């Protein structure tokens, strides 16, 4: 700014000199040349001054934006802080308040005492471990459903090479009758009013995470229950224990099916047993090695049913989701105990789109 003032002062001096020269009635050639020279210098000063003024405005705009950004950052609380603020407002009866936090999958709600979640570039709520497992397994997910949903599925058919003058085989394209219908999944946790007095945002972020995790754990448990219901004919009863030959027979039972996302799944106890099961007479190789069994991905998870080993194309097991997961605040039911009930509610259904894609080994013991 100091330089601009200096240039403005210099410009004023030159204009004053021009004014003095112009007062002469008859300008000599030398005076006229001097006046023209001064005008050129004034024009040059005008350009320099305009440049400096423009740069000063740009500098001010950057500084202003930086201040606004800093203010925005200061005003944007973390999810944990926002959730605590929301809880405090809900408990105090401020039911008109709503806010949105980012999560995966897409979560929506219109209830005043419900946290709305939507997808954004930054994921603040981690994907639930059970949900992550289903994704890794290759289970097909249908989200944003409305009304009952008929899963697109039909039996696998093969083309034929008919003989001369013979009729070609007809493929049956009648879809299977698997229909997903919304079923309510709930998960409730209680926090104390003493917890509400905490200000650590990590406490509230973990509360939300636990609620979401609980819902997806229930969904994953249901995936295995409905698989056994929808594909009951694929359950192979083996007697008292699991043998390596039984494992091989499972693969053979779905051998005519074009396998895509094939994998083994059992319980942690089953995994422990299979890691010690000899896969050859020499006793030097085991059925389960590393994270594979017989060359296929293998998982040991608590959601699998006891004494079961599952094998198949997991893209044919489906999960449907209607809307999102709502988190509802109830400060009244256990008020005398100083507890605030938080309930996560979602609408889900699971099912098997093609039972021929699976084999289920059933043993009384491992």
Helix and strand topology:
Elements: H1 2-22, H2 29-75, H3 79-91, E1 100-102, E2 116-118, H4 129-137, E3 140-142, E4 149-150, E5 179-180, E6 183-192, H5 193-196, H6 201-230, E7 235-237, H7 244-253, E8 262-266, H8 268-275, E9 288-289, E10 292-293, E11 296-300, E12 308-313, E13 317-330, E14 339-352, E15 358-362
Parallel strand pairs: 1-2, 3-13, 7-15, 8-11
Antiparallel strand pairs: 4-5, 6-14, 8-12, 9-10, 10-11, 12-15, 13-14
What does this structure look like?
With 366 residues, the protein is of the alpha/beta class. The chain has 2 domains: 2-75; 126-160 and 169-362, Alpha-Beta Complex (phage-related protein like fold), CATH 3.90.1690.10. It is built from 8 helices and 15 strands. It has helices at residues 2-22, 29-75, 79-91, 129-137, 193-196, 201-230, 244-253, 268-275, and strands at 100-102, 116-118, 140-142, 149-150, 179-180, 183-192, 235-237, 262-266, 288-289, 292-293, 296-300, 308-313, 317-330, 339-352, 358-362. The protein is elongated. It starts with a helix and ends with a strand.
Would you kindly provide a brief summary of this structure?
By secondary structure, this protein is of the alpha/beta class. Helix content is 39%, strand content 22%. Helix 1 (2-22) packs antiparallel against helix 2 and helix 4 crosses helix 6.
């Amino acid at each position: 700014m100091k330089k601009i003032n200096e240039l403005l002062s210099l410009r004023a001096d030159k204009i004053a000199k021009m004014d003095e020269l112009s007062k002469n009635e008859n300008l000599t050639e030398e005076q006229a040349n001097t006046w023209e020279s001064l005008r050129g210098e004034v024009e040059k000063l005008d350009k320099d001054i305009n440049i400096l003024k423009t740069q000063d405005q740009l500098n001010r705009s950057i500084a202003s934006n930086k201040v606004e950004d800093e203010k925005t950052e200061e005003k944007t609380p973390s999810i944990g802080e926002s959730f605590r603020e929301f809880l405090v407002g809900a408990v105090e009866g401020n039911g008109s308040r709503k806010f949105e936090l980012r999560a995966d999958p897409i979560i929506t709600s219109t209830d005043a005492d419900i946290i709305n979640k939507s997808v954004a570039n930054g994921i603040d709520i981690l994907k639930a471990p059970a949900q992550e497992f289903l994704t890794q397994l290759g289970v097909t997910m249908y989200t944003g459903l409305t009304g009952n949903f008929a899963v697109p599925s039909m039996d696998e058919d093969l083309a034929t090479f008919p003989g001369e003058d013979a009729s070609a085989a007809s493929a049956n394209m009648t879809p299977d009758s698997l229909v997903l219908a919304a079923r309510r999944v709930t998960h409730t946790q209680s926090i104390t009013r003493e917890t509400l007095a905490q200000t650590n945002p990590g406490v509230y972020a973990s509360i939300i995470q636990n609620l979401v995790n609980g819902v997806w754990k229930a969904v994953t448990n249901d995936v295995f229950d409905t698989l056994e219901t929808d594909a009951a004919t694929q359950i192979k009863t083996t007697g008292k224990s699991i043998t390596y030959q039984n494992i091989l027979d499972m693969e053979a039972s779905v051998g005519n099916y074009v396998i895509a996302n094939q994998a083994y799944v059992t319980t942690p106890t089953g995994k422990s047993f299979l890691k010690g099961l000899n896969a050859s007479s020499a006793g030097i190789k085991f059925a389960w090695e590393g994270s594979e069994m017989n060359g296929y991905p293998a998982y040991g998870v608590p959601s699998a049913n006891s004494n079961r080993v599952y094998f198949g194309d997991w893209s044919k097991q489906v999960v449907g989701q209607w809307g999102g997961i709502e988190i509802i605040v109830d400060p009244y039911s256990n008020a005398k105990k100083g507890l605030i009930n938080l309930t996560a509610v979602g609408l889900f259904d699971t099912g098997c789109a093609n039972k021929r894609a699976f084999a289920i080994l059933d043993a009384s013991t491992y």
